[in-house]
Amino acid sequence: MVGRVWLISNVYGDLNVEDSLIRDIISWRFDPATEKEFEKLGFPKDTVQVPLFGSRHQKYKITSPEGLEMQYTKMVAKGCSVRNHFYTIMKNYQLKDTDLVIYFDGDKQIDYNDALKIAEKLKTNDFVLSRRENISGISDDRFLVEKFENSFIEDHFSIELPDIQCGCWGLTGKHLKRIYKSLNAEGFEIELDLTACSLEAGIRPEYIDIKVRSPSATTFKSSEDHLTKLVFLMNKFKINQTQLIEKSQVFARKNKQLPMDYTKYFSYSQVNNLTF
Q1: What's the start-to-end Cα distance of the chain, in Å?
Q2: Which domain holds residue 109?
Q3: What CATH code is carried by the domain that includes residue 23?
Q4: Is the pTM here over 0.70, yes or no?
Q5: Among 92, 87, 117, which residue's Cα sits nearest to residue 102?
Q6: Which end of the chain is more exposed for a tag (fewer CB within 10 A), N or C?
């Protein structure tokens, strides 16, 4: 049975930009050249879908790990939005094991044609991430911090991962059903959550190589989102403040000293009050 391809993306905080993004994706998806490439991969044009979702001002239902449906009535952050996309596809479109779900960030860093590369890779793999061949649109400090964040997963699972937080990835319907209830990321930690849950399920990510452009816009706030990701990782892997400091020192010896604007979070109450 031929599966379907679900192309999902989102912008956080600007409904007009999001509407424009969806129109762009739909235009690309219905381009004859795009349809031809998907058909080469075994996906007839009527199987490639860009599902429509309700306004972010409407109530979103996202199933929690406990099986409860949580209501979100305000603007929804990245992780919640992605999980809402998952929920909608599973509930309203009867997700099949053979379906593919492919995501790219809404900042237009990613070439839509990279979705074709992910779709091809997903024919033989359950989970695919992208490896950036260049760094564009983010600072050297942010890239270094992302590398440190990724090391939590690498160290826990004794694995080397070239990239995790590119904002361009895909997974099979079968794999999404497998890990969906384990996901709990609400913000920019969603790729970290997806990767950790996949590895816990025994699924190692495969990679495609991509080139990224400078983003047209971003809602990433270093002052908030790095701290959110740090607390998420510490909770996920049961790492306390002392262990965090030791980990950062080991990382600095192997790589480079983390920026002070990041290490200041180590003394914040959200971090030093964590006990396991």
Answers
A1: 47
A2: 5-219
A3: 3.90.550
A4: yes
A5: 117
A6: N
